[in-house]
Predict the structure.
Amino acid sequence: MHYLLLYLKKVFTVDVRALALMRIGIGFVILLDLGIRATDLEAHYANMGVLPLHVLFQYNWDPYFISLHAISGLWQVQAVLFLIAALFGFLLLIGYRTRLATIVSWFLLLSLQNRNLLIGQAGDDLLRMILFWAIFLPWGRFYSQDAKRANNLHPENLHFSAASAAFIVQIMLVYVCTALLKNSPEWHTTGTALYYALSLDQVLMPGGKLIYPYSGLLHFLTLSTYYIELYLPFVLLIPFYTSFFRLLVVGVLTGFHLGISVTLFVGLFYLINLVSFIGLLPAPALNWFDAKLLPHIQNLGYRLRRFSFNIKNPIQLRFNWQLPAARKAILIIVKEGFVISVLLYVIWWNFSNVPQINHPMPVSVRWPGMLLRVDQHWGMFAPEVFKDDGWYILEGVTATHKHIDLNRNGQPVTERKPESVVALFKNDRWRKYGENYLFVNNAFMRPYFCHYRLRIWNEAHRPEDKVSELQVIYMKERTLPNYQPVKPKREVLCTCSL
């Protein structure tokens, strides 16, 4: 038992300064995510949008979900909740009342994501899980307002607990499980997965266009991706030269996600992963940061404060949480036990999904996962890459009998593929919505999107340009092997009218 504890401390100890930098990054990501989502307050979160509350509860709701955002279908209520979330996201970023800010930010993120699962992606799950584990981590001990108020000149740098182990295991699960889920030959035998992924014009970025013609390179990158995801995370469990191996993992995965960011349109997925890696940085990297970069950052902060308002009497929340030592020890034991229990549950949840084990989690024990939203499925391009590609045409008929494409700002309808399919999407939330729109089991979505686009077009245009009928058309291209040309097939997914 003694040697096991020494091993666990060796591989699962984290530098609190790394956690603090990750906290700052997570706070920034929360604010950025809210900013992007706020541009679609009505469309994605109000009854006048694409998913009214009665539709959400009928088709896309779990009885154990919790969501403040589902208490009202008014966009104004959503705006208030967004502002509250932004406030606590900012408090998290600066490290003011960090634990409270973490708990509220996690809860409001959970609430927001539950309101509309049709626009969610894997990065949302990771962001939610990082915030959950961080509730039990001391990531406000450095580089924070809390640290200034504590006036502790020599805080402890290293931290080992069930939560630090859970954080590292969570990072490992993302990659190991996505590799196990990629059990089709295109990932580990034929090596054609990246060819198919870059054939999807809906996610193709300029970097992807650049490497797409080179089949040999795509074959190499496919196999590299699979084996990096499957084996590299286990390097974090090596109990010697841990600083070197942590830097190796962070460096490789950082390059991996930067490569994804320039080749595939994945929204904030790559950024959330990059921020999560900061928490893995070992002490030597943080020592370098403190010696070389921190003084310049502090100097910049001092200069900015010279031009800021001086708030002499800020509102401060004061609580007296002093507990007897015995009671404090009991609370620590309860906390550690709870975190270990949730971690084991999360591991069970993840591995019950992989085909190699083929042991699904019983429905009767899934409710805690849905309640706390520690449910997760890392099926990125798994088990195989989606082959049905294409683009949307929103064909509207005006009062003057013109056929215009609302998806291209009212230009005449054409079935010619646009130069950039990605450019047709306002953001990655709409791209994900468009992907879910195709599935037959999501057919309930279709009329609400059609009526929403019809309404907002008519509200913004003159009577002669208003549309009386709208067809949602998908020009489907089934990707074929070896760069074979394919003729798009026109599919009418929905028709609506005034």
Q: What stands out?
A: The radius of gyration is 25 Å. The beta strands are 14-15, 158-159, 388-398, 403-405, 411-412, 467-478, 489-497.
